[in-house]
Specification:
The termini are far apart. The chain has one domain. About 9% of the residues have low confidence. Helix 2 runs parallel beside helix 8 and helix 4 runs parallel beside helix 6. The protein is an all-alpha fold and 236 residues long. The protein is globular, with a radius of gyration of 23 Å. Helices cover 80% and strands 0% of the residues.
Length: 236
Amino acid sequence: MKLGQLANGRRRLAAYWGAAVVQVVAVACDAKVLKQASKASLMPLLLSWSRTEQAPPLLQAALLASAAGDLLLETELQLAGIAAFAAAHACYLAVYLTRPGQRSWRVVAAYGALWAALVAVLSPGLGGQRVPVAAYALLLTATAIASRWHSPRSGLGGALFLISDALIALRLAGRDFPGRGALVMSTYAAGQYFLTSGLVDQRSGEHGRAASARGTGGGAPSGSRATRWRPPPPTA
């Protein structure tokens, strides 16, 4: 990666974290205008950074769908917002399941038990939203599992995203508490970053190894005709 491109990527990532800090503070202080503006900028900034890192198209689609979800959830179109985030998780699943990783059934069992416990605890307070919330939580759990199979870094992102939306479900179930909103956005912003960086870091490593292989293989190979044959030394 060129130095200019690297610096550009760092500036965009710094802008993302700046917007995330503003968002968390605005939520904690209930500054409505600042809260909406910073939330609307989060995913576009992360998407912009991911493009400098040559992120896979499905990852970019997940961030774009998340940006749409953030905007829709601030309106009356709540179901459309949930559908947008469901599409984002479908993209995450598609990209993570096509990447090599160590697949452990212990991870499936642990997250499956967590999903069942969350549904059992929250269902009494969800009323008619019980089924859609359980279905969406299952999709979130699948993303957490697939991302953990990929790497610990991306798995941290999947876990944080699950925690963020579980905190939202607590409010829907009538179990709100002070500071919950700030926790939702801090875990959401960190989760999206780790889900994204877990993939782009792997691609950067792959590109680096490929470039190194091209660099070492640019000259004549050690077993080639140019290095294998030598003329005999002159005789006296």
